[in-house]
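Q: How would the structure tokens look for this protein?
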Amino acid sequence: MNEPQVIQALGALAQETRLRIVRFLIGCGDAGASAGDIATHVGVGASSASFHLAALGHAGIVNSQRRSRKVIYQAEFAALGGVIAFLLNDCCDNHPDIRACCFDCEPGSSN
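A: Here is the predicted structure in token form.
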């Protein structure tokens, strides 16, 4: 992943609803979720969810595909991993203190 792609992805993620959408879609795995299910889960209207999904899709961190009569959205795991790898390896030069923080923190902790 290159710097402009990472900047675009981080910009898309730097918004509360979009971050909630990505977190939800990561939990959905390969099954993904419809826009209606996403809207319900993150507590926004359908048009708002569609707006945010379009921004996430444009940034390359969410994809969509038609399944029967529904459009299903999925997290782009490789792209999200690419952002993290870029931050660790390219920005932080794989600094051991930063890397240790990524693996030593428990989910939900403030570290």
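The chain is about 60% helix and 15% strand.

The helical segments are 3-13, 16-28, 35-42, 46-58, 77-91, 96-104.

Upvote if useful.
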